[in-house]
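Message: Just now I want nothing more than another pair of eyes on a protein record. I am handing you a single protein, as its sequence and its fold in token form. As I understand it, each token names a local backbone shape. Take your time, and here it is.
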Amino acid sequence: MAIQLATLNIQFIEGDDTNDTILAMEKILECAANDADVEDVQISYVEKDRVISVGIFFDSDSRLSFLEAGIALGNCKKECMDSDLVRCLSFWNSVNAIDGTTIASPI
């Protein structure tokens, strides 16, 4: 069993990445993941790229586990888009190893 992270990445438009906005977005993403019955979520912010990421752990040997992670990320994206906190430059999904190495990403 190999554990990986299905990740939703959200890049802020320059100037929209204030500390208050980042903290509020973290809360929205955590609540959205919890609403999708995710118990363990990883949220990170990379200041130089203005990217906040929410990662959902899944078993890479289980298609069902991957599907469940994708559903949770869809809920996170919906809640983010429904909020009036931020204008985003882009959204993208990726699959990452536990150490943060990108396994698959469109960018």
Q: What stands out?
A: The chain has a mean pLDDT of 91.
